[in-house]
Amino acid sequence: MALSKLDNLYRAVILDHSSNPRHAGELHTGCMIDLNNPTCGDVIRLTVEFEGDVISNIAFSGHGCTISTASASMMTVAVLGKTKEEAKELATIFSAMVTGETDERQEALGDAQFLAGVSKFPARVKCSTLAWNALKKAIDFGEAQETVIHGE
């Protein structure tokens, strides 16, 4: 596939996740994390429900740029049903990827691997990692109900 066609595919997937975000909304129970990216105004509220060590439900709300919203949508799809350890590993792989590191495990990110190009735009890295940072905080707090953290 020609590079321009591949770039167009990546753009289409990113725009689809931004326009039709998966797992958008709020849950009434679970660990709730509020984070923001003051450099561009992105705000996310991530709520994660756990059954033991497994992410049983996840949702996000807020507002943000295309990259931030698409990344949150992609993240929720990638981690739903995963253990806390698996989800943290995906977050680590994602963070490394958007800062320019390559890792053969990137395929495990699903659609989120299409955000690898963010590494060419350092100002967008915080946009792409906002949801993933909220996920790491939710995992660290675990079963805590109504935990809210402001700021990144």
Automatic annotation (TrEMBL):
| MF terms in GO | iron ion binding; iron-sulfur cluster binding
Lineage: superkingdom: Bacteria
UniProt GO BP: iron-sulfur cluster assembly
Gene3D superfamilies associated with the record: 3.90.1010.10
Any one Pfam family here would be NifU_N
Sequence ranges assigned to domain NIF system FeS cluster assembly NifU N-terminal in this UniProt record: 10-127
Q: What is this protein called?
A: NIF system FeS cluster assembly NifU N-terminal domain-containing protein
Organism source for this protein? Lactococcus lactis subsp. cremoris (strain MG1363)
